[in-house]
Every structure is written in C-alpha cells, then in structure tokens.
Amino acid sequence: MKSNAFKFSLATMLLVGMAFSAAAQTPATVPAQATPAKAAPPAPAAAPASPATPATKPRKATIPAPDWLTKEIGKPIRLQGEGTLRFIGFAIYNARLWVPGSGFTYDNDFALDITYQQGTDKQGLVLATVPELGRFMNTNSAKLEAWTNDLKRVYPDIEVGDRFIAIWRKDQNVTRFYHNDKPTGDIMGADFAKAFFAIWLDPQTRRSDLRRALLSE
After folding, report:
1. Residue 104 needs a FRET pair 20 to 30 A away by CA distance; which of 75, 118, 173, 212 works?
2. Quick one: which H or E segment has residue 73?
3. What's residue 195's pLDDT?
4. What angle do CA 217, 56, 157 make, to 5 degrees?
C-alpha cells in the first residue's frame, strides 16, 4: 500500500505542476498505446536533474467527447490535444482539452479533462493548486483566500482511475467541476477561470510540454 508521503509527492505536487520549473524538465515523447519512456539518467550530484518528465504527444485521431459533456457545453466539441504527465516513470495523469470547432480561447466554452493514475486527497489538491493560482492571479489576498475555500468545496478525494473535469462556461461566467461525471460545484468569475486554467495553458506554465500537447502546438 502506498504511503501518504508517496501519494503527496507523486500525485499532489505534480497534479498542477508546481514543483519544478519548465526549464529543468527533460521532455520525452510517447506515442499513443506505447510503452512509457524511461526516465532520463540522473545528472551529477552538483546539478541534479528534475525528476519530473512530462512525456506528452498530441493525438490527431478523432476521439468523441462524452455525450454528457457535449450536452453540458451545449455545442459540438472536439479534442484539441492530449498529454500524459509522468514522474520518474510513473504516469501521474492523462489530460485532454475539449474545445468547440474554433479551438481554445476564453471567449468560448472548453473543458480540461484529467484522468488520474495516482491517488490523493482534496487537501493535497488544494495545497498544490493555491500557490499556482497566486502566480497567475490579478487580485488581492482576500480573493485568493476565497478561492481557496471554493476549491475545498469543489475538489474531491482522488482514487486511481478517477476522472476530474473543469469546464469554463463563458456565457455563464462560471467554472464548473465534475468528478467521475457528477457535478461537485461551481466557482464564479472569469478572473478565477483564467488563473486556474493558466496552470496548464498559459505560456508561463511550469509544464510547457504538456501545454504544447494539449494545444497541439
């Protein structure tokens, strides 16, 4: 049985990409259904390499969106890109970006769809997310505290194989969260949405390879 420390280090610190800078990553491309790439050999002790290796590859094949997700967004959507985040050979999660035909933009609805290969609890998710929100927010500490409480409300405990989806609904000015296809709550405001999704999709993300895979760049 995995220890709580193991879960936190593998599943929480990397869930939203807060542990290591993108400049220290060693990207590796893994084709769909292929054997995961081996982690890069360790660097000399004086300059250790980051153990975070996001092996990612956008998929060009047509993958249909879940019916309920299409209905929630209210228009046809497609898979823009997909990638897998890995840590020293362990798959942490697979992420997909669902978008309307025009592609990713905050002017349209979209969904970030994550399936986890490691488990963690909601407290770990909150602790990992809040510092990253602070990197991208244009608001005060009181707002960040409010967002922290919102995340405690909408985040679930995560088991291996769980699916967690965050949906931006532009017309409703809300980010809607689903755990295993069931709603867990909403967080209002475009300022929250832009700070939250920036963790994966902003050019300054700590996971630049995963961002390129999600956007098919």
Report:
1. 118
2. helix 67-73
3. 95
4. 115
pLDDT at residue 139, as a whole number: 63
Write b or e for each residue in 16-26: b if 16 or more Cβ atoms lie within 10 A of its Cβ, otherwise e: bbbbbebeebb
Distance from C-alpha of 101 to C-alpha of 89, rounded to nearest angstrom: 34
Greatest C-alpha distance within the chain: 54
| Distance in angstroms (rounded) separating the CA atoms of residues 15 and 23 | 18
CA distance 32 to 63: 12
Average pLDDT, the chain: 78
The CA distance from 15 to 202, in Å, is 16
Closest alpha carbon to 151 in 171, 133, 173, 170: 133
Burial of 84 (C-beta count, 10 Å sphere; 0-12/13-18/19+): buried
